[in-house]
From TrEMBL:
PROSITE patterns: MACRO. SMART domains: A1pp (SM00506). This is O-acetyl-ADP-ribose deacetylase. It comes from the Bacteria. InterPro entries: Macro_dom, Macro_dom-like. Pfam families: Macro (PF01661). PANTHER family: GANGLIOSIDE INDUCED DIFFERENTIATION ASSOCIATED PROTEIN 2-RELATED, MACRO DOMAIN-CONTAINING PROTEIN. Residues 1-169 form the Macro domain.
Amino acid sequence: MDLKAIKGDITTIEADAIVNVANASLMGGGGVDGAIHRAGGPEILEECKKIVAKQGKCKTGEAVVTTAGKLPSNYVIHTVGPVWKGGNKDEVQKLANCYKNSLALAVENNCKTIAFPNISTGVYDFPKDKAAEIAVKTMKMFSERNNTIEKVVFVCFDEENFNLTKNEL
Ligand code: ADP
């Protein structure tokens, strides 16, 4: 599995799947979530609503998949990141679960290329250095047991995340 970090906007990435950081209601929000829904169009939200109607809210660390609407990728995988509350609320495990469950869903949907944002490092306030370490470690552990995903790109929106992620890699 080829792992790399780039600086950019995830809505412009052509991959089999891009990952969104949603909230539990899957109803859209700010940050990367807002950008994905704006660029992808209303089809994404329609599918999110159907998922919630069927299975209820999405728990922290879990992931669901929808169309990517007008985006250049095939699927959007929505995962709910943990809010950083000081580190004693299982935040590390929950962040690792976001990456693991998103990758598992990508495999289930025959995705070979997948793009991730730096989950939870915006308004959810996860320390960026720790988050980058967990993201890369989880990805490497996954790639040791799975060879269907060929390429994972971390699409970092800011310079700090880009440098931290690149260093971890
Ligand atoms: P969270 O609730 O997970 O903290 P945010 O959307 O606030 O969600 O931020 C998550 C990360 O996504 C942050 O590092 C933020 O800089 C980044 N981000 C925001 N917009 C985009 C985008 N268009 N493409 C990629 N990353 C983005």
